[in-house]
């Protein structure tokens, strides 16, 4: 499982001209899933992300987590994070999980993240043509891969 974590001042997801999620201060998470991902990957990522100290404390030092600052979160499924660009110029998405597997893992990730955060998170619509808008704060952007825990 790969996740792009972006600290945002605001973010939103629009589908067919309608805003389906929007937040102020918090995190926008882009999630890419492979067939081999499991509950272990989900649990590790959710616990790690909710506790990442990437928000400024009262001294302007990145010392607070999204949990500590009561930040909001949007999780968007993005299969293109699993692209392979080794051959040619057209990315291959063969590593991305098939929808029947990816939907379940995505939904499990969202539910586990809500448990860790203690509040509901926003989402996109799986498989939809989404327009994601954000104001990256910092900018702070972090890539995490559950296959690289060490």
UniProtKB/TrEMBL annotation:
Q: Which residues cross the membrane?
A: none
Primary subcellular site in the record, as a coarse category? cytoplasm
Query: What is any one of the record's Gene Ontology cellular component terms?
Result: cytoplasm
Which keywords does UniProt give here? Cytoplasm, Hydrolase, RNA-binding, tRNA-binding
Q: How does it assemble?
A: Homodimer.
Family under the similarity heading: Belongs to the DTD family.
Reproduce the free-text note on domains from the UniProt record. Answer: A Gly-cisPro motif from one monomer fits into the active site of the other monomer to allow specific chiral rejection of L-amino acids.
Q: Which organism is it from?
A: uncultured Flavobacteriia bacterium
The cellular location(s) given in this protein's UniProt record come to: Cytoplasm
Alphabetically, the GO molecular function entries are: D-tyrosyl-tRNA(Tyr) deacylase activity; Gly-tRNA(Ala) deacylase activity; Ser(Gly)-tRNA(Ala) hydrolase activity; tRNA binding
Query: Which GO BP terms, alphabetically?
Result: D-amino acid catabolic process
Q: Where is this motif: Gly-cisPro motif, important for rejection of L-amino acids?
A: 138-139
Catalytic activity from the UniProt record: a D-aminoacyl-tRNA + H2O = a tRNA + a D-alpha-amino acid + H(+); glycyl-tRNA(Ala) + H2O = tRNA(Ala) + glycine + H(+)
Q: Give one Pfam family, short name only.
A: Tyr_Deacylase
Q: Which domain of life is it from?
A: Bacteria
Q: What does this protein do?
A: An aminoacyl-tRNA editing enzyme that deacylates mischarged D-aminoacyl-tRNAs. Also deacylates mischarged glycyl-tRNA(Ala), protecting cells against glycine mischarging by AlaRS. Acts via tRNA-based rather than protein-based catalysis; rejects L-amino acids rather than detecting D-amino acids in the active site. By recycling D-aminoacyl-tRNA to D-amino acids and free tRNA molecules, this enzyme counteracts the toxicity associated with the formation of D-aminoacyl-tRNA entities in vivo and helps enforce protein L-homochirality.
This protein's record includes keyword Cell wall biogenesis/degradation:
no
Q: What InterPro entries has UniProt attached to this entry?
A: Daa-tRNA_deacyls_DTD, DTD-like_sf
- The record's EC number reads 3.1.1.96, 3.1.1.-
Under which name does UniProt file this protein? D-aminoacyl-tRNA deacylase
């Amino acid at each position: 499982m790969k996740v792009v974590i972006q600290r945002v001042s605001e973010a939103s997801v629009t589908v067919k001209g309608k805003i389906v999620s929007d937040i102020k201060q918090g995190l926008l998470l882009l999630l890419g899933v492979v067939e081999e991902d499991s509950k272990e990957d989900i649990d590790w990522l959710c616990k790690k992300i909710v506790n990442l100290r990437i928000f400024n404390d009262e001294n302007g030092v990145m010392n607070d987590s999204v949990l500590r600052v009561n930040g909001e979160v949007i999780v968007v499924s993005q299969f293109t994070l699993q692209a392979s660009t080794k051959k040619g110029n057209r990315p291959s998405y063969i590593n991305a999980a098939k929808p029947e597997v990816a939907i379940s893992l995505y939904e499990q990730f969202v539910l586990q993240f809500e448990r860790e955060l203690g509040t509901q998170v926003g989402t996109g619509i799986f498989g939809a043509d989404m327009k994601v808008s954000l104001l990256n704060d910092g900018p702070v952007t972090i890539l995490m891969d559950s296959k690289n825990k060490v």
